[in-house]
Amino acid sequence: MKLADLGEQGVIELFKREFETLECASVLKSIGDDCAVIRLDGGDCLVVSIDTILQKTHIPREMTPEQIGIYAVNVVLSDIAAMGAEALGLVFSTALPQDMNRDFAGSIAKGMAQAAAKHGTSIVGGDTQKAEEIAITGTAFGRVKEENLLLRSGAGVGDLICTTGEIGSAAAGFYCLTNKIDGYHGFIKRALEPRARLREGKILSKFASSCMDISDGLALSVHEIATQSGVGARIFEEKIPINHRLNEVARLTGVSLREMTLYKGGDFELLFTVAPDRFESVQTDMEKIGSPAAAIGEITEKNIRLVDEKGCETELAMRGWQAFS
């Protein structure tokens, strides 16, 4: 059997079976969440995440070198945000072609440094290596009080299912690039320059029962939280927050709103669950930083369902970005 037959989750499980035997008492959470979590003294937790971007997979021709750096930093910091943690620092292993222009490489580094600084952190070390194509692997470190730690596994029946920001904008940006459609700079910027929701994650650490980032797609993330929490979910399609111009891109590309919002991925927003009586407090604190939050569904006892604008209820397909598909 090939890895393509296993899929990303199958590959993760393959490694997880071996790695679980190495766990120790200080490890609060290992494989299966946005970050590994290590318990420290004084009630603190160290959260650690790692992500790789590859030239063929993640870097379209239209992406500038600065945007490559911005993307690499925000991809890995998004996992720190999902845990409700503050970023402590990053290290990067950067593999570049040896015939790459010096200024191009310098601009990648500049983008990385600027992106880290915008989140109040910095790049503290790493490694460089030559390669046939660009490959950048980032490791991010964060800190959060154990009592405020957000996991994927805490959702309870009756909780609201919510998201930050607008969903589908990054997908629209990628479709505009692919189809060479002009006039949608905002969507394209969302695709090429994502922003990790660190401030939002820290707010959610005070209120949410579970959380994860939705870069692999909203539907896949709903399934992940429901599965890890041992519950079901019901998503109301008409409540998913979208930019008012998303319909235009859907008409121009022939790609449905459902595909862009639920399955395509690329949005570095947060999916979270929260008790109904705490959601107003979430909205109030989010408004203070200019970041909206929307309730798009509810946690149920079983089954994962999608309700369309006509009230028709069907199974929510477990589909999204898969690294080995």
Looking at CATH, which topology of the largest domain would you report?
Phosphoribosyl-aminoimidazole Synthetase, Chain A, domain 2
Task: Indicate the proportion of strand residues.
Answer: 25-35%
Radius of gyration: 19 Å
Q: Strands of the biggest beta sheet: in what spatial order?
A: 8-10-7-11-9-12-13
Shape: globular
Second rung of CATH, namely the architecture of the largest domain: Alpha-Beta Complex
Q: Portion of residues in helices?
A: 25-40%
A few lines on this structure:
The protein is α+β, with helices and mostly antiparallel strands and about 325 residues long. The chain is about 35% helix and about 25% strand. The protein folds into two domains: about 120 residues, 60s Ribosomal Protein L30, Chain: A; about 160 residues, PurM-like C-terminal domain (Phosphoribosyl-aminoimidazole Synthetase, Chain A, domain 2).
Structure, described:
- The structure is a single chain.
- With 325 residues, the protein is an alpha+beta fold.
- It folds into two domains: 32-147, 2-Layer Sandwich (60s Ribosomal Protein L30, Chain: A); 151-315, PurM-like C-terminal domain (Phosphoribosyl-aminoimidazole Synthetase, Chain A, domain 2, Alpha-Beta Complex), CATH 3.90.650.10.
- It contains eleven helices and 13 strands.
- Strands 8-10-7-11-9-12-13 form a seven-stranded mixed beta sheet, with helices on both faces. A six-stranded mixed beta sheet has the order 1-2-3-6-4-5.
- β12 and β13 form a beta hairpin.
- The longest helix is centred in the first third of the chain and has 18 residues, at 65-82.
- The model has no long low-confidence stretch (mean pLDDT 92).
